[in-house]
Amino acid sequence: MVAGDRLDRIDGRRRRLLAGLAGVSTGATAGCLQQFRSMANRNSPRDVSLEVKTVPADIDPRGIHIARDVADNLEAVGIGATVTPMDEQELLRDVLINNDFDLYVARHPGYDDPDFLRPLLHSDFVEEPGWQNPFGFTDLEVDDLLDAQRRSSGDRRRRQLSELQRAVARQQPFSVVAFPDDIWAVRTDRFVGWNRFGLRRALGILGLDAETDDPDRLDLVTTDDRLTKNLNPLASEFRNRGTFVGLLYDSLGRRYDGEVRPWLAADWEWSSEGGRPAARVDLREDLTWHDGEPLTADDVAFTYELLADTSLGREEDPIPAPRFRGRVSLVETVRAVGSRTVEFAFADCDPEVAVRAFAVPVLPEAEWESKASEANFAGIGLGGQTTEAVVWDNPNPVGSGPLQFEEREPADSVVFSRFDDHFLHGDEVASRFGATFETLQLQVVPSNDAAIEVLTEARADAAASTIMPKFVPEVAESDDVEVVSKASRSFYHLGFNVERAPLGNPRFRQNVARLLDKGTIVSEVFDDYAVPAATPLAVTDWAAPDLEWDGEDPVVPFFGSGGDLDTDEAHAAFRDAGYRYAKDGSLRNR
Amino acid sequence: MFAFRVLGLVLAIVLSMLVVATVAFVGRERLVRTPGDARRRIRAVLPYFVALAVLLVLNSVIRDLGPEFSWIVGWNITGGIHAIEGQFVAHLQSALFHPALTAYFSFIYVYGYTFLLLFPLVAYFALADTGPLRRTIVAYGLNYGLGVICYIAFIAYGPRNLMPELVDGLLFSTYPQYQLLTAEVNSNTNVFPSLHTSLSVTVALLAARTRDIYRGWWYVATVIATSVVISTMYLGIHWGIDVVAGILLAVASVRLAESSWFDWE
């Protein structure tokens, strides 16, 4: 980032030094030279300049609004800042894979259990792609707390999580901004039941009820075209919550009614081995893949091996899949016993945490085994960094889920159809989650406005991507289009690359976080369809009581009030943290 | 897929505009003489037409693949443009804003622009001298060719995408159906330079060259071209810098089209 600058400066100094030396007579004293040396070997401080990456307004006007607020306030306190809008997968590639960013504003995909914080913040994961410590954050105290919380349960775990949240809030590897409500626009003339899970979960789509006799096709539109380009459940830059891929690929368990319940598994039985949990999982009978081949215990065991090391031992170091990393890291060994039984041995953790491991997509061994090879492009290898399993776009996915893939047109549409051999048809959960449509078509539209236009004209049943709050009144007025809204655990945050100076300094990060006026952002950017927050567990029972939002952030309160930045206060705080200002008001960094 | 209905409407309206303009500017006399001489005129410009067609096909292929490729080799200049011109477009929009103007500029951006590009082909075909038609085709080709190179080299989002709370993407928020159409044609990262600006200014510059023949068209082309240029900013789609670059591209394209390089006879 600054290597070029530094070389230029060194060069400049060298020239000045030489020019100086030329004027010095041979009689120059050692003392004089000494002074030259100590002057010349001192790096002059430089202006700090930061880039804030985020997605453009067509994808999400809120992210870019927050990013511009941050950039404007950084500028106001003497720190150069630019906002760079990027396509969603490009942003996630830079943040999650290449670690190429200073700051970013994005939505975390959300979580079911606080253990998601372990891959996100533990130093063990600092070199891994995906939502595995994209910040490069390392703190031994936080590591210990992350390890401790997964081993405990009840009040003990709650206390450990509170302590963890306080440590993270002080360190600010990322700053939580707000938890938005997800708002969808839907039509109710052909399908009802949209508000059961909302549209962010596969079960929400499966659980729709037909309003008319056999509507054969569910028509959805979205502003997110990534699914049309890539259907790989392991590709972190193409997935948020994996809603649609979750229709194609089943997991041993799915979370509904508050916990992970058997899905592909008929049942599971917990035991303990040397103080660590173990489980014996029995699969349902007659499971098949979409291509008609039987789904066996071997496929399940293979899946967990592949996710733990997508090279299947071919590379010197394992290359774990970037998605489901936290879940898979709970599993020590998996063994197929017979064709329908799988035995799991878990790492040192509580069974309530361990059960999370059952909610990962099961992949067919026959197809994915060959994907363990080193990824290459036109025959050129990438040096053992990644495998085909992670990077291929899975153009013709074969899963075992309730829907099967039919066709796709990149950047335009994807079509799935009902998989009639699925166990849902003829099962007690079927009445809740048995798809009432023959096919599902997802079409890409360029924006929120376009999505609502298409809905109003009855050319689609719902917009699968969320709409902005400003459209709520317009949608509410329309006769056939309705608003569905759900609080979400997918939080907006400002992420810091702590491997880049001066963002490695927690006091600098705290001060940058204090440039965020979360309260005003929630009212102005989110039209109050969000809650401001100081911790990533804010909207859950696990939230630390002393980190509750109380009109302002209890750890990093905004510099100023009512939307107005108090630059004097901010300047003073940066000075307090050891930074200096140049005459022109710009902050300098050594 | 959703775009087909909008496309039909646009074609119908532009076609009627072309008919009216042909009657008004070309006149009966020239139209009557055209069929007899058509074969010679077509032969004279055919190589240019073929070249333009090849370029347009190439262009559509590149525009399909371009955005992906652009993310690999391109330079994201959105932040830089914003640093230079700041909130110019936001100020322009709030100073001019009026629902009637939004309707006018939206009409101009979609229909006026398409008409502006197509009418010269009709009007100049009606001339015995094939020079103006030839130069028009060459200038269009240069605009597209150089424009696409810029689109690959530079990634830039328009002001509505960077500061949505200050700059309303008026065209698409008022008439979302048009975005279904333009999204088919172009990616939202292709704003530098503004091809709407460059092609419109190109037509106006060429119209100025033929003002002794088509004086009325010169006036109309100038008014529409100016409106298109303002509309790109008023509608929040382009930055001022995209427009400046578009004008420069237009001047360069017309100059080149008039140079001996493209006189293939």
Walk me through what this model shows:
The complex is a heterodimer of chains A (590) and B (265). Chain A is α+β, with helices and mostly antiparallel strands. Chain A has four domains: 3-44; 49-179 and 492-589, Dipeptide-binding Protein, domain 3, CATH 3.10.105; 189-249 and 401-479, Periplasmic binding protein-like II (D-Maltodextrin-Binding Protein, domain 2); 253-371, Alpha-Beta Complex (Dipeptide-binding Protein, domain 1). The two termini of chain A are 14 Å apart. Mean pLDDT of chain A is 89; it is low at 1-27. In chain B, 80% of the residues lie in helices and 2% in strands. Chain B has a two-stranded parallel ribbon with strand order 1-2. In chain B, α4 (99-125) crosses α10 and α9 (195-209) packs across α11. Chain A binds chain B through residues 51, 56-58, 61, 64-65, 68, 82-87, 90, 412-413, 443, 445-447, 449-450, 452-454, 459, 524-525, and chain B through 1-2, 67, 71, 76, 78-80, 82-83, 157, 160-165, 169, 172-173, 176-177, 179-180, 182-183, 188-189.
